[in-house]
Backbone:
């Protein structure tokens, strides 16, 4: 018996060109928005927000001791001076009623600020 | 009260013409009251079980949590989440009423093992084969600090019991320890119902935002932990270079510093200088001056000003720990602690040099 092939029907989950156009335009807009905020140098945080200790400083050229570290958010520059103080604060500054219950465990668990 | 309408109905024959209407209204009122009471009972049954313990004050809660860590042995896995980072460790804890011994093995970042016996601490770092030996003053402060007349915690924090939740497989009382002013953060604490052990704690910023949290993801209470084996591991430093940080106890006054204004609730707790190995002029060694209000602590770091290193006055943060820096004459002061930035700014504005 001859096999008669039915005319090809478009599958319901086939990609549609107009949707590709929409997706492409949305991606372009997202890239533009991220690029704009990066260029402004302020990110999405408000002016009153505190920056993270692990961040790229405004003038990396002058940070002779800064270290470039790869993170899931991309390469960032760590401030070793602040991290050193953070480690000292955790070791000797934990004057709290919760120190014996969780304070010490918390400080010993943190992997930032190597013990010296 | 529910019997009253029936008694009135029985006296019906001698009542005035309005009496049946009044009686009917009263009956409806009683029926509604009964329905409301029944509804309230059902609602109460539908809600999570209230904490079985009676209301405790903030000091009572903190003492209960502290005592639990002195009386129960456990093993568990602890996770600390601060900002974008997350760290985890495996914990062994044992105590005999007199001494506590615990071991913390890091599961993230560089491998290291920390073992403490009361306030003696040793940290083994296998990567560089070093063992750092220290005494932590902070571990001996409580509960004595909480019992003294100078205990100011209730003056600056209040406790609010929230309910009961399950954490790491254990039912825990949830209590919020909230600040009474803007100079400190609040805490939400999950305390295991039977023992009082803290199984989870969140540091709360403005409008209750969670800045940092510490929680057990797995916890075995009354686990068979050998105190002798932990002590033995603490002493076994073979193959490691033992380092003792050179800290020298001092006072801020002796170093030529003072606060011209007190920050509400914060008391000076300790002060030390760190020897850098280089000869420095008197009063020029890096100093750490620690303050506490009983729950939050602040370190004031004072070091000689260095144009290359000390350039940023902007606040920085990691989790609940914030820092602010400022130049004071020939020195640079960094205030760091688990408090709002406004508190740190008040500290670095208040510190002043008393000696040239």
Residues:
């Amino acid at each position: 018996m001859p096999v008669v092939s039915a005319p090809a029907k478009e599958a319901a989950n086939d990609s549609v060109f107009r949707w590709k156009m929409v997706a492409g335009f949305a991606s372009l807009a997202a890239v533009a928005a991220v690029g704009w905020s990066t260029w402004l140098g302020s990110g999405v945080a408000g002016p009153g927000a505190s920056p993270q200790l692990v961040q790229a400083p405004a003038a990396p050229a002058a940070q002779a001791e800064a270290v470039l570290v790869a993170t899931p958010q991309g390469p960032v520059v760590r401030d070793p001076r602040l991290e050193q103080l953070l480690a000292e604060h955790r070791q000797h500054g934990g004057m709290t009623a919760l120190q014996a219950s969780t304070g010490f465990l918390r400080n010993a668990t943190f992997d930032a600020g190597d013990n010296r | 009260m529910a019997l009253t309408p029936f008694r009135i109905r029985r006296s019906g024959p001698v009542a005035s013409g309005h009496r049946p209407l009044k009686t009917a209204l009263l009956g409806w009122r009683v029926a509604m009251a009964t329905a409301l009471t029944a509804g309230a009972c059902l609602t109460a049954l539908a809600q999570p079980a209230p904490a079985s313990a009676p209301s405790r004050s903030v000091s009572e809660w903190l003492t209960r949590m502290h005592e639990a860590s002195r009386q129960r042995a456990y093993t568990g896995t602890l996770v600390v989440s601060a900002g974008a980072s997350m760290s985890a460790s495996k914990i062994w804890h044992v105590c005999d009423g007199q001494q506590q011994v615990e071991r913390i093995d890091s599961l993230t970042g560089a491998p290291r093992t920390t073992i403490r016996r009361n306030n003696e601490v040793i940290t083994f770092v296998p990567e560089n084969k070093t063992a750092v030996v220290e005494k932590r003053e902070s571990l001996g402060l409580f509960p004595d600090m909480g019992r003294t007349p100078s205990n100011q915690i209730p003056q600056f924090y209040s406790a609010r019991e929230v309910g009961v939740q399950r954490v790491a497989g254990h039912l825990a009382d949830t209590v919020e320890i909230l600040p009474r002013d803007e100079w400190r953060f609040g805490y939400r604490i999950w305390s295991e119902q039977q023992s009082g052990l803290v199984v989870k704690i969140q540091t709360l910023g403005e409008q209750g935002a969670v800045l940092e949290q510490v929680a057990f993801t797995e916890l075995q209470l009354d686990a068979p932990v050998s105190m002798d084996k932990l002590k033995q591991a603490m002493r076994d430093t073979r193959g490691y270079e033992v380092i003792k940080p050179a800290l020298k106890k001092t006072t801020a006054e002796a170093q030529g510093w003072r606060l011209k204004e007190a920050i509400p609730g914060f008391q000076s707790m300790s002060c030390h200088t760190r020897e850098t190995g280089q000869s420095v002029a008197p009063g020029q060694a890096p100093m750490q001056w620690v303050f506490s209000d009983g729950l939050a602590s602040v370190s004031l770091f004072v070091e000689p000003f260095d144009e290359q290193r000390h350039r940023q006055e902007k606040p920085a943060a990691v989790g609940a720990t914030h820092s602010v820096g400022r130049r004071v004459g020939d020195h640079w002061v960094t205030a760091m602690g688990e408090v709002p930035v406004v508190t740190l700014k008040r500290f670095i504005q208040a510190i002043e040099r008393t000696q040239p």
Observations:
- The first strand of chain B starts at residue 74 and ends at 82.
